[in-house]
Design goal:
By secondary structure, the chain is α/β, with parallel strands linked by helices. It has eight helices and eleven strands. The strands form two sheets. Strands 1, 3, 4, 5, 6, 7, 8, 9 and 11 form a nine-stranded mixed beta sheet that branches.
């Protein structure tokens, strides 16, 4: 079965999905949810299994607030089995399987070896608006990179980060601060344009892309890189 992933929903609907990667990251994730709630917006949180395991109460708060949940691997390391390990934790706490999965480092190849990722009921989700908030210290730069992205339209999926994969607590807690400062203006700007901010479970995903091996395999672990090279017949 070919691996397919989605970058957007229907373009004829004024819906936009704000997605947040690499949490739960208390109290930063709680700050994000407070901003969303104050503006009547929902989000989708692509969580890491290791943080769900460490912060189960923070994960439960995301669920209790009615946001959508996605699988973003366990360790955020590009090796085989990471999605399945995460799903065992996330699904157990949810009481049901997740419906959405995002490949860390855009390393879609590992999905091919994951029964969870390749399940008929799972949708692998990328984004069409990627402001790279994790690499920006200026909130205005994050606002501009989001609201001025030429791809922004009905059905857009925006990729932001409420956490990070770092084990260093200080780095993990500091990294989302510029995004959190930018988030009210992002939400207000989107709503001012008439967009409804919804969870991925309220959006019909369309136009799936069939994945082909590419240079993003350079992020992979040695065993995955070897498999990619064997598939493509050349070094990645």
């Amino acid at each position: 079965m070919p691996l397919k992933y989605y970058t957007h929903g229907r373009r004829d609907e004024m819906k936009v999905a704000l997605t947040f990667d690499d949490g739960p990251n208390p109290p930063r994730t709680d700050q994000v949810m407070e901003i969303l709630e104050s503006r009547g917006a929902r989000g989708t949180f692509f969580v890491l299994g290791k943080w769900v395991e460490r912060f189960p109460e923070a994960f439960q708060r995301i669920v209790d607030k009615g946001h959508s949940i996605g699988n973003h691997s366990h360790l955020h390391e590009a090796h085989l089995g990471d999605f399945d390990r995460a799903e065992a934790l996330i699904g157990n706490l949810l009481g049901r399987p997740t419906r959405f999965l995002r490949a860390h480092y855009f390393n879609f190849f590992t999905c091919l070896y994951s029964p969870v990722a390749m399940s008929r009921d799972m949708k692998i989700v990328d984004a069409d608006v990627n402001p790279a908030d994790y690499a920006k210290a200026d909130p205005k730069a994050i606002i501009d990179a989001t609201l001025e992205d030429p791809a922004l339209a009905g059905g857009s999926i925006i990729d932001l980060h409420d956490g990070r994969e770092f084990d260093d607590d200080a780095r993990r807690l500091a990294s989302p601060l510029p995004m959190i400062e930018a988030l009210p203006a992002i939400v207000d700007g989107l709503q001012a344009r008439g967009f409804e901010l919804v969870g991925l479970d309220e959006m019909e995903l369309v136009d799936p892309i069939e994945w082909q091996p590419d240079g993003r395999g350079n992020f992979a672990s040695p065993e995955v890189r070897a498999a990619i090279q064997g598939l493509s017949g050349k070094a990645d």
